[in-house]
Specification:
This protein has 65 residues and is of the alpha+beta class. It contains 1 helix and 2 strands; from the N terminus they run E-H-E.
Length: 65
């Protein structure tokens, strides 16, 4: 299965991505709660037949502000 793109800067999403299911959070590990969020994200995107995107932060935003 091909891996989704991994963006490491503010360059944004590719221009061909139109209509996307997205979740944003500080996903600091893949525990049960995060796994549930990701599964719901992917399921919704599949129903709508559009891409899914997970946005996370490294380092944690509180380390910057």
């Amino acid at each position: 299965m091909p891996r989704d793109p991994y963006l490491t800067d503010e360059s944004g999403l590719p221009p061909h991505v139109n209509g996307t299911v997205i979740t944003v959070g500080t996903f600091d590990g893949v525990h049960r709660g995060h796994r549930d969020v990701v599964e719901r994200l992917v399921k919704r995107a599949r129903v709508l037949k559009i891409p899914s995107v997970l946005v996370t932060f490294e380092p944690h935003p509180l380390e910057i502000v």
